[in-house]
Amino acid sequence: MHIKDSLHLLANLAASAVLASVVASPVQAQFARKSPIAQFDTNGDGQVTLPELEIARARLFAWADTDKSGALDRGEFLQIEQGRASGRGGKRPFEKFENSDENFDGRVSRTEFGKGARRMMHAMDQNGDFKLDQSDFKRRRRQ
Q1: Which of 53, 74, 115, 123 is the most exposed place for a label (fewest CB within 10 A)?
Q2: Residue 61's closest CA among 73, 47, 51?
Q3: Are 106 and 90 in contact (CB under 8 A)?
Q4: 86-95 tens-digit pLDDT
Q5: Three-state secondary-structure class, residue 2
Q6: Which helix (H) or strand (E) holds 91?
Q7: Can you give the pLDDT at residue 13?
Q8: Is the separation of the CB atoms in 51 and 15 below 8 Å?
Q9: Cβ distance 84 to 120 under 8 Å?
Q10: DSSP 19-79
């Protein structure tokens, strides 16, 4: 490979990295916050509703679907789970992928991924008000 080709390749890689960081930053920032409530509470009322969970998961899906195929392959799905399962109980990333892939095609579709919001609400909503508050998230961490 010539120096000119190497420089061209490096310039393309750098441009891709910058573009990826600009596109991904808002979603990454949303899910990097420390408080679980802050990750999903779009209106700032201290509670998370099912529509808020669905919106957050749709954004997360759009960010993770790097090839824009409309489905997450194992690598794209695991990118979401990276760091989220560490230090906490719960399912491992590979198990989450397998459970989310309802039709066993090796990919998690937008619809399959979206169902996770409803599963999360049902699993965590302790008092049945269809809203998650800080106490619901605290109970979940202890389980």
Answers
A1: 123
A2: 73
A3: no
A4: 444 456 888 8
A5: coil
A6: none
A7: 38
A8: no
A9: no
A10: HHHHHHHHHHHHHHSSSHHHHH-SS-SS-EEHHHHHHHHHHHHHHH-TT-SSEE-HHHHHH
Spatial separation of the C-alpha atoms in residues 2 and 11, rounded to whole Å: 14
Supply the mean pLDDT for the chain.
76
Q: Say how far residue 49 (Cα) sits from the centre of its chain.
A: 17
The helix/strand/coil state of 98 is: helix
Q: Choose among 20, 94, 18: nearest CA to 64.
A: 20
Spatial distance between the Cα atoms of 66 and 77, rounded to a whole number of angstroms: 10
Q: pLDDT tens digits for 61-99?
A: 999 999 999 999 999 999 887 755 444 445 688 888 999
> Which residue do the tokens 């066993």 mark?
104
Give the containing element (helix H, strand E) for 10.
helix 3-32
